[in-house]
Amino acid sequence: MAAHPPRRLPLTVIGGFLGAGKTTLLQHWLRHAAGQRLAILVNDFGALNLDATLIGAQSGDTFALTNGCVCCQIGDDMGRALGQVLDRAQDFDAVVIEASGVSDPWRIAQMGRADPGLVLDGVIVVLDASCALTQAHDPLLADTLLRQVRAADQLLLNHADQASAADLQALAGWLHGAAPGVAQWQTTHGQVPLAVLSSAELADAPRWAARHAAPGPLVTGSPTQAATARHGTHTAGHVAPHAAPAHAQQFASWSCQPQRRFAVSALQAWLKAPPRGLLRLKGWVLSDQEPGQWLEVQFAGRQGSVRKCAAPADGAVLVAIGLAQHLPTLELNSFFGEP
């Protein structure tokens, strides 16, 4: 049997223009890491404004946090900072890089495609819903914003509570033209379930699936409005001004323990054109090509992969996440088998 590839750390890149809410999203992620050991690379510690109770120790350009995460200041050499993280790869479950407000996040994401110690988990681009459309039509800013949007696997329309319904609809329409097929989420304070942002939350798929019955609601832990789907744009954590917060869950999960074997080519073809409504998929299945050979299957945003791996402790299992009432359970069941 061929040796399985070495473990690779999933890399998430967070991009977006100045003031869009990238740092707020990182703060949300750190507060709710709940066991995820994250290595977060940032441009400026001062902007993070970390909760003092999270900081365990500081050494030079690194904060060791009490929740097992680490924040490293990039400075002028991102390659050096990333190299330091990869030297301690066994200590982390994932790497998150906050791109500067004027940079192209795709150039950073290329590291996840080129470095053998990393695998690109997705590019999240945050926009300020109250002014992004104005920025998109500013000759001095338009090119930067367009590059960021086109790099995205998911788009977070942050500060949605500060934008009118007409402005949100106009922005959604522009984004559908600029980045067709990319999921959009209206948010306030960057409040999005971590499982939507990162496969690190799904690292232990069997136990995750046990916590979230399939198909069923994915509990976000924070008040949200009922999901809406206007022009393909969905609401996450957005509460209209003066409205009492509702608690309807917006995301649904599905899980399956497939008993049959799969061809790599069939899995790759399915991942290239997954059914609409699928946000994330992760798990392990048996290959039909080699006895006892296991395959790790992942999908996030627009990125899909199939890789040989070691035998999982709990056998074959797959977990998927999508918007409530839009998760394509029929298509998932049809291809992978009834749960």
Notes on the protein architecture:
By secondary structure, the chain is an alpha/beta fold. The protein has two domains: 184 residues, P-loop containing nucleotide triphosphate hydrolases (Rossmann fold); 85 residues, 2-Layer Sandwich (Hypothetical Protein Yjia, Chain: A,domain 2). It is 26% helix and 28% strand.
CATH architecture annotation name of the largest domain: 3-Layer(aba) Sandwich
**Which overall shape is indicated by the principal axes computed on the Cα atoms?**
globular
Helicity, in percent?
25-40%
Helix and strand content put the structural class at alpha/beta
Q: What average pLDDT do the residues reach?
A: 79
The Rg value, from CA coordinates, equals 20 Å
Low-confidence stretches: 213-248
Strand content: 25-35%
CATH class of the largest domain: Alpha Beta
Distance between the termini: 29 Å
How many helices? The count is 11
Order of helices and strands: EHEHEEEHEHEHHEHEHHEEEEHEEEEH
